[in-house]
Amino acid sequence: MSTPRDQLFMEQAIELALHAQQEGEIPVGAVVVYQDEVIGRGWNRSISCHDASHHAEIMALREAGQVLKNYRLIDTTLYVTLEPCPMCAGAMVHARVAKLVYGASDPKTGAAGSVFNLVAEPCLNHQLEIVGGVEQERCSTLLSEFFRNRRKAIRSAKKLKSSQQG
């Protein structure tokens, strides 16, 4: 169940997702919080950086590690607008993040309960507390609109190319 604190920090993650969207990236934002202070921020940059590892969560974890001068982010909470993929979930486990709070579920690659639950896998050496669905509608809408507009742009480009060839 989400708290007012979860709402506050998810709002900051949403702002970062909007920043990603303005840059033409998939609108996902993340913040890492330690002792009620944001110590890591990230937004998707995979498209502009041509790098599959430039997810919002990874960027936020990297910055948090620099702030704490430690790759182990014990007693932190990661807030992200989309349920993490396996890569990001694995990074959170390795970093020893205590809690994950996410907005929209990801039925295709979600690794915090939708497809499988890597962050709470009992066979691993660390499990995270999970709170899902915080600002779910807003987070889902951002993603849906991004992909709808992207498909529309692709169709328009194909039509234009076709008319120029014809």
Automatic annotation (TrEMBL):
InterPro entries in the record: APOBEC/CMP_deaminase_Zn-bd, CMP_dCMP_dom, Cytidine_deaminase-like, tRNA_aden_deaminase
Residues that coordinate or bind Zn(2+): 55, 85, 88
Reaction it catalyzes: adenosine(34) in tRNA + H2O + H(+) = inosine(34) in tRNA + NH4(+)
EC number assigned by the record: 3.5.4.33
Domain CMP/dCMP-type deaminase: 4-116
Co-factor requirement: Zn(2+)
Keywords, comma-separated and alphabetical: Hydrolase, Metal-binding, tRNA processing, Zinc
HAMAP family (alphabetical): tRNA_aden_deaminase (MF_00972)
Oligomer and partners: Homodimer.
PANTHER family, per the entry: CYTOSINE DEAMINASE FAMILY MEMBER, TRNA-SPECIFIC ADENOSINE DEAMINASE
Protein name: tRNA-specific adenosine deaminase
Species annotation: Celerinatantimonas yamalensis
Gene expressing this chain: tadA
